[in-house]
Predict the 3D structure of the following.
Amino acid sequence: MRPVEPASLTRDLSCRTISNMKTTLTVRNQISIPKTLCDRLDLKPGTRIDWEISGEKLVGRPLSEHAWTKLIGLRKDGPGLVTRLLKTRGEDRARETRKLAG
């Protein structure tokens, strides 16, 4: 399975075809991708999709089987979550030790 860029969607499917495919957002904020698109893009259950907002459009790009691992930590700032957690725990432990000693 190869990642598909928005230009590929436009090239592979006519705008008329895309505009006739409608889905509804469920109460659990889920959508179903029309079977025609799944077949055309070879999407299988469990396929990860990278979502982004481009202007007024929601763009979803299928990720290759292991491409999603490249997204891990992409948007984090500063130290990782584990580092921050360990620092906070250390500060809490020091505060509790001071309380018990005083």
Summary: The two ends are 63 Å apart (CA to CA). The first strand starts at residue 49 and ends at 54.
